[in-house]
């Protein structure tokens, strides 16, 4: 039996058998590489980096002074002018992570062309946008107000500005989407969990359309200092920011924080076809696991990652032979090699044909938004048959038969891609997408 | 217009993001100027801060128009 026949047989037994199919009909990104999916993607595959010296506050007294910040500027240059997306009078009622989520969700919804008209259509459209941390800067500012003895002066918008599920809330209010309104909080796995869970809501019939993804904005004193204390951030490349995020490289010394949001519009396949929607790809597999090991470190061999990927393959009814590209979690920390080891073990001989890259080398780590941004990159990798590069991979700390796409993007056939995200608390999620 | 009235108007324009011409004395924060209940709480706080007055909750509930706010603050300041 050929691999194709085997995959076909397995496919009929997998996630798609008898279930509603879920496709991606809209996408939005705002992040360190800028605004707009096509702009960000073309910069990514050109090998550009979105990392720089922190500009939102003075970080000179902190060990880590670099981050991936959203560039401000005109939209036609692929940059963000926030007032074009969120009315100025409303901006102060929301933390920056909500701004980010609203920008990317607006892009995605407009890209999808989905405009529910009837009550029924509105009730069949839901939102599931998460965040790893939520309104950290808002909480910091409010704490100072209370500390100064001005508790009675605390803004009535403090709580709704900081709450993680308020991105979903604001998006639903903006568009009148009255279906399931939900939110995911699984640290750096949030984006993948949100898309995977939202896809299942559609498969199970709870909704026909879901706006899903993640948003994060913690390039602030508390965010940077907190991850510095956990010894998680890169500190050795403050003078050369674009070299700081270097997954798998022997000189890597921690992740680089990024901010922004990635949002997709997920839609039941027949629903999308019936309205003639543009279809980017299909969510065909989703797997999850827990390490039950340590609050921040993955276990030896990263068996949690292994099981999440295996479970995603099973839900898709695929084997490792079917996967052409893996978008790695690859944060530029010691854990990179453990993920690599887990992929090698799972893929066996199929590892030799595999391309795997970490786009965090260009964007930094967008925490709760990372998985959603990287799911979009995986879909575009399939659309264009291009594996985006791993920047700064000059000298791997561990050799591998897997092509990690060092420095330059590669044109190669990519039909099916898997994207990994792992979070503090020992939570792991893998998503599998294909073209339609 | 008094100095207090000018300042009240400015705060309303700033917080509710409305055009200055709409902020007439009779304008209701909620019905005419698009405020919600949280906006009005924040507005009252802004008045307290700007004029260095205390506006207790039962008094705040009665401040529903621009004129209500001006009258209350003028009375407090005169006392």
From TrEMBL, chain B:
Protein name, as recorded: Acyl carrier protein
Role noted for this protein: Carrier of the growing fatty acid chain in fatty acid biosynthesis.
NCBIfam families xref list: acyl_carrier, PRK00982.1-2, PRK00982.1-3, PRK00982.1-4, PRK00982.1-5
The entry's keywords: Cytoplasm, Fatty acid biosynthesis, Fatty acid metabolism, Lipid biosynthesis, Lipid metabolism, Phosphopantetheine, Phosphoprotein
Subcellular location(s) per record: Cytoplasm
Lineage: Bacteria, Pseudomonadati, Pseudomonadota, Alphaproteobacteria, Acetobacterales
Domain Carrier: 2-77
Modified residues (O-(pantetheine 4'-phosphoryl)serine): 37
GO biological process, one term: Kdo2-lipid A biosynthetic process
Pathway connected to this protein: Lipid metabolism; fatty acid biosynthesis; Glycolipid biosynthesis; KDO(2)-lipid A biosynthesis
Mod. after translation: 4'-phosphopantetheine is transferred from CoA to a specific serine of apo-ACP by acpS. 4'-phosphopantetheine is transferred from CoA to a specific serine of apo-ACP by AcpS. This modification is essential for activity because fatty acids are bound in thioester linkage to the sulfhydryl of the prosthetic group.
Gene: acpP
Pfam families: PP-binding (PF00550)
Protein family membership: Belongs to the acyl carrier protein (ACP) family.
A GO-annotated cellular component: membrane
One example GO MF annotation: acyl carrier activity
InterPro entries recorded: ACP, ACP-like_sf, PP-bd_ACP, Ppantetheine_attach_site
UniProt organism field: Acetobacter okinawensis
């Amino acid at each position: 039996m050929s691999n194709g026949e085997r995959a076909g047989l397995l496919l009929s037994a997998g996630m798609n058998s008898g279930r509603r199919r879920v496709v991606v009909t809209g996408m939005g990104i705002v992040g360190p590489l800028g605004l707009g999916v096509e702009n960000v993607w073309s910069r990514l595959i050109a090998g550009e980096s979105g990392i720089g010296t922190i500009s939102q506050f003075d970080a000179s007294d902190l060990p880590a002074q670099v981050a991936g910040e959203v560039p401000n500027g005109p939209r036609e240059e692929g940059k963000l002018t926030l007032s074009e997306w969120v009315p100025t009078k409303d901006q102060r009622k929301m933390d920056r992570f909500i701004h980010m989520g609203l920008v990317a969700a607006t892009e995605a919804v407009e890209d999808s062309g989905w405009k529910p008209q009837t009550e029924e259509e509105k009730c069949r459209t839901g939102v599931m946008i998460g965040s790893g941390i939520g309104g950290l800067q808002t909480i910091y500012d409010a704490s100072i107000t209370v500390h100064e003895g001005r508790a009675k002066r605390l803004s009535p918008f403090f709580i709704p500005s900081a709450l993680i599920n308020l991105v979903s809330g604001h998006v639903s209010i903006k568009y009148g989407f009255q279906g399931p309104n939900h939110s995911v909080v699984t640290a750096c796995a949030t984006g993948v969990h949100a898309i995977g869970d939202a896809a299942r809501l559609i498969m199970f019939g709870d909704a026909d359309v879901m706006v899903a993804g993640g948003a994060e904005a913690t390039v602030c004193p508390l965010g940077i200092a907190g991850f510095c204390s956990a010894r998680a951030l890169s500190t050795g490349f403050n003078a050369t920011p674009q070299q700081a995020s270097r997954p798998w490289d022997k000189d890597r010394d921690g992740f680089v924080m990024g901010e922004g949001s990635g949002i997709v519009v997920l839609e039941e396949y027949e629903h999308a076809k019936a309205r003639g929607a543009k279809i980017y790809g299909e969510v065909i597999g989703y797997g999850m696991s827990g390490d039950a090991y340590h609050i921040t470190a993955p276990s030896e061999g990263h068996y949690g990652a292994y099981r999440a990927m295996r479970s995603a393959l099973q839900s898709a009814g695929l084997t490792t032979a079917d996967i052409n590209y893996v978008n790695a979690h690859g944060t530029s920390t010691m854990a990179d090699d453990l993920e690599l080891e887990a992929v090698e073990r799972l893929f066996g001989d199929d590892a030799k044909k595999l391309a795997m890259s970490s786009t965090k080398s260009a964007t930094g780590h967008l925490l709760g938004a990372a998985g959603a941004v990287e799911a979009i990159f995986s879909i575009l990798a399939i659309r264009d048959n291009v594996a985006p590069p791993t920047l700064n991979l000059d000298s791997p700390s561990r050799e591998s038969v897997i092509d990690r796409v060092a420095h330059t993007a590669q044109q190669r056939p990519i039909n099916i891609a898997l994207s990994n995200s792992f979070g503090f608390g020992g939570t792991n999620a893998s998503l599998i997408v294909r073209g339609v | 217009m008094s100095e207090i009235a000018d300042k009240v108007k400015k705060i309303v324009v700033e917080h509710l993001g409305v055009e200055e011409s709409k902020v007439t004395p009779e304008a209701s924060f909620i019905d005419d100027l698009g405020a919600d209940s949280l906006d009005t709480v924040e507005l009252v706080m802004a008045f307290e801060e700007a004029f260095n007055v205390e506006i207790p909750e039962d008094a705040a509930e009665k401040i529903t128009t621009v004129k209500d706010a001006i009258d209350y603050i003028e009375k407090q300041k005169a006392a």
